[in-house]
Amino acid sequence: MKKSFLTYEKLLEIEKEYETPFHIYDEKGIIDNAKELLEAFSWNKGFYEFFAVKATPNPHILKILDGLGIGADCSSYAELKMCEKAGIKNIMFSSNETELEEYKYASKLGAIINLDDITHIDYIKDEIKIPEKMCLRYNPGGVFKLGNDIMDNPKDAKYGMTKDQIIEAIIKLKELGVKEFGIHSFIASNTVTNEYYPYIARMIFELILEVKEKVDVNFTFVNLSGGIGVPYKPEQEKNDIKKISEGVKKAYDELIKNNGLELAIYTELGRYMLAPYGNLIVKAIHEKHIYKEYIGVNSCATDLMRPAMYGAYHHIVVLGKENMPCDHTYDIVGSLCENNDKFAIDRKLPKIEIGDRLAILDAGAHGQAMGYNYNGKLKCKELLLKQDGSVKLIRRAETLDDYFATLDFSEFK
Ligand SMILES: *Cc1c(COP(=O)(O)O)cnc(C)c1O
Predict the structure, then answer these.
(1) Ligand 1, closest atom to CA 137?
(2) How far does the centroid of ligand 1 lie from the alpha carbon of residue 48, in Å?
(3) I want to staple 106 with a disulfide (CB 3.0 to 4.6 A). Which of 93, 156, 356, 391 is the partner?
(4) Residue range 130-178, pLDDT digits in tens
(5) Within 13 Å and on the Cβ side, how many CA atoms surround 279?
(6) What is the position in ligand 1's atom list of the atom closest to the CA of 55?
């Protein structure tokens, strides 16, 4: 049974200081999970996780991971800047349709640039100092299928280069002084299977062997990117990171070690590192009985967009009613003038009273980060439940002043 890391008793304590709605992150959960990842891949000497900042862009979260020897994968100028301000040193820069300013900044910070396209070489070569270590993003094209549940269409994805372009890019970049190369590929998101990473590792290892036959190149790392998923639904089985790592090791031993090569394995996990360790806590403020039963809450897609955007499932727990039967059916809805603003549809839950607090689970990644200000809705605060049980405000809620900051009313006075 899925449950929140937040007990009802703890909620009551927190509410003395902080009102709902808020995102709350579980430091202990984040640390234990990250340690398990590092331990699972400890067979690879150079293993390194660059946390995908876009999943949970908060410096306090980045610092927790930094303390464990985890860096950052940035996708934009703002994320680079956040890392610089937080003192995060080890950075991968995986962007696309990148502006020159962003490349300049990434180069200045000493980030490994993960190049999305071959045409970007000419775009940057006279403008920035080309780093000696570069990553190239590979798009295998075609259709990707793994088991019965995982399907994706790399041929329709805007990311990465073809095999021929990778080879050409390596030749060009070597001439520009690049000494160490790596290959990155990302073909499926939120994979709840132990087979995805071994699959993509094997694909990249094979590509590396093939490229090495055609061009003299010093590969020192591979970047397996993100994509390891979490079980959002109660019936889904959690990934086993040890099994995933064993699968990658098998491919590594066969294709890399047996060929006398050595590579560091890099990852850029976002969701896997944070999603389960964040909850969005909201309060029931209305109930409505029309053609369906609705519970209106004091939050909306601004705080968690995945259900509205992807129809994503997020499990919901009514705090304090964990042991009551789920014998009522509700749509749990936010306040946007958009009918997709539903945290849950036809969800079986205990009877909800006005004032009940609901924990929306697995909101720790791509949650607060994705929100927008449509309808003039303001993003809620973020709290950190620390290992010692204390609670720290790690981002205040947006205010109307924030919302109006880009407007000038002076001529209406
Ligand atoms: C989004 C993204 C990630 C993280 O993906 P998750 O599914 O959160 O693990 C990693 N790398 C790149 C390039 C991404 O765009």
Answers:
(1) 13
(2) 15
(3) 93
(4) 999 999 999 999 999 998 888 889 999 999 999 999 999 999 999 999 9
(5) 25
(6) 8
